[in-house]
């Protein structure tokens, strides 16, 4: 028994080498993953500091992510064509009566006959209810055509929407935590593998070091192999996450890059995130109405559509309206109607957003089409994250391995 304990005591220091190698491999890879994402903001002083690779390159990463996904599978014209004005009109049916009455009443009441006296208001309030209801009904019948006209104008001049991809990029690059969450959500398993693989690779890499130290225990051996282990575990793990892009049979096993292997699953996740956080009706509406140039173009399109609708107004109604408010005020009323339409665009009913989102169907479209992308194109979604400053991550891993090897030499000595 004493001989066994004596043997263990003699060789325990050697057995510790592959164990330490495994711990170093895990530690360096785990740190590399964290350094890709954190800290969100720069931490340090001058050149002595660090910011996560992804947040530090938020603008570049956002552009690559959007252009490699949304930009490749859905065109802006397709999104515009998907919105059906008739469906919108049906969705907003519960608001039509109120909207029509508000429009007609405001047009009439804003008009002035005989100078500054609003005789038209008196005439309208005194008009028979049946006449009012008849005018309301005629205007209501025109609304679907007006909405069709506005929608068709948007389709012809869809650049009024601006560049949707650019809007998504701008939104994403200002939300660094969301950008990090997207990459972690999409490639979380791969990043976990990156960290754990350091242990799997580190242990076998430490076995030859154990024998080398037994026969040649020079001071630089452990630090040198520590550096090598830190470097190789990072490089091997990064390679296995990315390559090979297509399945390959090696020694009876099918090998494929871990990220590409989960292409369909990751595509579904990205579709859901884009639909919820980056590209939906509410966000697009806010983008449009935030830019003065876009607002001017929208107002121009709306006014043009209203003018066309006026020209087609039923002969029975037009004379009644002109008689009620006068020819000059009738012409001015187009601006009143356009203003009401713009106000409706600024404060829409939530069901309006829901209808457009269902038409756009971003989650399903993006998830399905990304899932069918060629592996080399889909690989472009993750590769920039790893490739950006990859040498720094590998260098840090190697440096930590060097330090760990030196400390192990001090301990064994």
Short description:
Keywords: Membrane, Transmembrane, Transmembrane helix. The chain is mostly helical and 413 residues long.
Structural write-up:
With 413 residues, this protein is an all-alpha fold. The chain folds into two domains: 16-72 and 173-268 and 385-412, no CATH class; 74-165 and 277-370, no CATH class. Helices cover 79% and strands 3% of the residues. The protein has helices spanning 2-37, 53-56, 58-68, 70-73, 76-82, 85-91, 93-110, 119-126, 129-156, 164-173, 176-215, 221-242, 258-261, 263-278, 281-290, 292-311, 318-325, 327-346, 350-360, 362-371, 375-378, 383-387, 390-412; strands at residues 43-45, 48-50, 248-250, 253-255. Strands 1-2 form a two-stranded antiparallel sheet. Strands 3-4 form a two-stranded antiparallel ribbon. Helix 1 (2-37) packs across helix 12 and helix 14 runs antiparallel to helix 20.
Lay out the secondary structure:
Layout: H1 2-37, E1 43-45, E2 48-50, H2 53-56, H3 58-68, H4 70-73, H5 76-82, H6 85-91, H7 93-110, H8 119-126, H9 129-156, H10 164-173, H11 176-215, H12 221-242, E3 248-250, E4 253-255, H13 258-261, H14 263-278, H15 281-290, H16 292-311, H17 318-325, H18 327-346, H19 350-360, H20 362-371, H21 375-378, H22 383-387, H23 390-412
Antiparallel strand pairs: 1-2, 3-4
Average per-residue pLDDT, rounded, comes to 76
Apparent shape: elongated
Question: Are there runs of 5+ residues with pLDDT below 50, and where?
Answer: 112-119
Tally of individual domains: 2
What series of H and E elements makes up the topology? Answer: HEEHHHHHHHHHHHEEHHHHHHHHHHH
Please summarize the sheet with the most strands. Answer: 2 strands, antiparallel
Alpha-carbon distance between the termini?
Answer: 27 Å
> How many alpha or pi helices?
23
How much of the residues is beta strand, in percent? under 5%
Strand line-up across the major sheet: 1-2
User: Whole-number radius of gyration?
Assistant: 34 Å
Number of strands: 4
Helix content, binned percent: over 70%
Structural class based on helices, strands and sheet pairing: mainly alpha
């Amino acid at each position: 028994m004493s001989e066994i304990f004596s043997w263990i005591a003699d060789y325990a220091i050697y057995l510790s080498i592959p164990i330490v190698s495994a711990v170093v491999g895990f530690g360096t890879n785990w740190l590399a993953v964290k350094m890709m994402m954190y800290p969100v903001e720069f931490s340090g002083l001058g050149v002595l500091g660090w910011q996560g690779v992804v947040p530090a390159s938020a603008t570049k990463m956002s552009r690559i992510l959007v252009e490699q996904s949304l930009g490749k599978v859905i065109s802006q014209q397709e999104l515009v064509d998907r919105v059906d004005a008739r469906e919108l009109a049906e969705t907003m049916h519960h608001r039509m009566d109120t909207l029509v009455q508000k429009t007609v009443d405001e047009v009439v009441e804003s008009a002035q006959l005989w100078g500054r006296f609003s005789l038209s208001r008196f005439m309208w309030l005194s008009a028979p209810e049946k006449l009012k209801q008849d005018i309301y009904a005629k205007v209501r019948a025109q609304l679907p055509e007006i909405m069709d006209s506005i929608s068709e104008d948007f389709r012809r001049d869809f650049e009024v929407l601006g560049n949707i991809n650019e809007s998504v990029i701008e939104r994403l690059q200002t939300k660094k935590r969301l950008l990090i969450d997207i990459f972690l959500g999409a490639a979380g398993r791969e990043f976990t593998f990156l960290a754990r693989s350091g242990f799997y690779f580190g242990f076998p890499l430490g076995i030859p070091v154990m024998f080398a130290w037994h026969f040649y225990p020079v001071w630089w051996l452990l630090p040198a192999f520590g550096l090598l282990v830190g470097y190789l575990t990072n490089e091997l793990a990064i390679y296995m996450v990315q390559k090979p892009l297509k399945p390959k049979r090696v020694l009876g096993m099918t090998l494929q890059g871990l990220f590409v292997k989960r292409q369909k699953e990751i595509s579904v996740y990205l579709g859901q995130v884009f639909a919820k956080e980056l590209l939906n009706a509410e966000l697009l509406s806010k983008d449009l109405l935030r830019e003065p140039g876009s607002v001017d173009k929208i107002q121009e399109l709306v006014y043009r559509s209203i003018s066309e609708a006026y020209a087609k107004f039923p002969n029975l109604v037009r004379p009644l309206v002109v008689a009620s408010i006068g020819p000059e005020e009738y012409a001015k009323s187009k601006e009143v109607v356009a203003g009401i339409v713009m106000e409706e665009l600024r404060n829409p009913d939530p069901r309006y957003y829901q209808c457009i989102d269902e038409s756009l169907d971003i989650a399903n479209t993006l998830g399905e089409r990304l899932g069918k992308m060629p592996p080399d194109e889909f690989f472009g979604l993750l590769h920039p994250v790893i490739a950006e400053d990859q040498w720094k991550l590998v260098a840090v891993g190697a440096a930590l391995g060097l330090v760990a090897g030196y400390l192990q030499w001090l301990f064994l000595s």
